[in-house]
Write a structure and sequence with these properties.
CATH class of the largest domain: Alpha Beta
Helix content: 25-40%
Distance between the termini: 33 Å
CATH architecture of the largest domain: Alpha-Beta Barrel
CATH superfamily of the largest domain: Aldolase class I
Shape: elongated
Strand content: 15-25%
Largest sheet: 8 strands, parallel
Bound molecules: phosphoenolpyruvate, manganese (II) ion
Number of strands: 14
Length: 333
């Protein structure tokens, strides 16, 4: 249920109402907008007398929210959420450019890619240290050493770092990581999501490869209802009937998620297509479609990459693409 308060309500009246709801065993999500405050009531609202609430002098309107996702629902929080990562802002008109290799391979590689993507305009560095690979015989990532190399690259370039966490058991290793990525395979690892909800850290939540938008939002809800509102959603392609492409990039997820939720939504054209030459057109289409940022794989030597070389852009290709993205942003902004 949402309760929209009238503008300029006296603070103490607002607080009294909130306490009253809490006294009924309800959670209260408070969204203070420029003009109005919206109270989102979470829990068993069946016993709340809507007509009585509506009649209060400080209440503008009361509505039942039928969706099962509450904290990430735009009805609970009409304004866009802006996630802050150091000086970088994501959402609410702020566009992020996350770029870097699929996997951190060695110090020279990550530093050289970090420097080149920064020069091209990227504002966050990606790089996998814990890699979820389909085959147990494939490169599994440098793990803790990879995280250390990312920190060195951050020190060299100033770019905040984004990297995937696969297991709660590794959480302590991530205390100095700027953005924790939940990969497609872990989107419904509910124990991990709940744990990340207690960290307060920005979380990049990727859509599961066979998951609906509602399921993605319910996963965001796990993180948010555990206390962490810093969630960035990521469309990275889903399994359909695609044969020549790794996945199908669901671009329509962008406007639909913007309608349903206040969270930023970014797009990963690299994993969506699996083919480097398909990445620029899809990145441009996603930008035109209103996403809040892009996460793109870039490697200094794609043919020799230890993971996902076929979908990785060279630094030069990324620089070229970044210019086009900037131009499209100026048109759609
Ligand atoms: C990745 O970002 O390297 C990755 C493994 O992504 P996804 O979980 O979307 O496959
Ligand atoms: Mn990858």
């Amino acid at each position: 249920m949402i309760v929209v308060l009238k503008p300029n309500v006296a603070q103490e009246k607002e607080e009294r109402l909130i306490e009253w709801f809490k006294g009924m065993g309800l959670g209260v999500h408070i969204s203070t907008g420029e003009y109005q405050t919206v109270l989102g009531l979470i829990g068993d609202t069946a016993k709340v007398d809507m007509e009585m609430i509506d009649s209060l002098d400080i209440v503008d309107s009361v509505k039942r929210v039928s969706e099962t996702f509450k904290c990430c629902n735009r009805k609970f929080h009409p304004e866009d959420t802006v996630v802050s990562i150091g000086d970088v802002r994501v959402g609410g008109g702020n566009f992020c450019m996350i770029a870097g290799p699929c996997s951190v391979e060695n110090e020279d590689q990550i530093i050289s890619v970090a420097k080149s993507v920064k020069a091209a305009g990227a504002n966050l560095l990606r790089g996998g240290a814990f890699k979820p690979r389909t085959s147990p015989y494939d490169f599994q990532g440098l793990k803790a050493e990879g995280l250390e190399l990312l920190k060195i690259a951050r020190k060299e370039t100033g770019l905040p770092i984004v990297t995937e966490i696969m297991s709660i058991a590794d959480l302590d290793l991530f205390s100095d990581i700027d953005v924790l990525q939940v990969g497609t395979r872990n989107m419904q690892n509910f124990d991990l999501l709940k744990e990340l909800g207690q960290t307060g850290k920005p979380i990049l939540l990727k859509r599961g490869l066979a998951n609906t938008l509602k399921e993605l939002l319910m996963s965001a809800e796990y993180i948010m209802s555990s206390g962490n509102e810093n969630v960035i959603l990521c469309e990275r392609g889903i399994r359909t009937f695609s044969d020549y492409l790794r996945n199908t990039l669901d671009l329509s997820a962008i406007p639909m998620l913007h309608e349903l939720s206040h969270l930023p939504i970014i797009v990963d054209p690299s994993h969506a297509t699996g083919i480097a030459r398909m990445v620029p057109p899809m990145a441009m289409a996603a930008t035109a479609g209103g996403c809040d940022g892009l996460i793109i794989e870039v490697h200094n030597d794609p043919p020799h990459a230890l993971c996902d070389g076929a979908q990785s852009l060279t630094p030069e290709e990324y620089a070229e693409l970044a210019k086009k993205i900037k131009a499209i942003r100026e048109v759609v902004a």
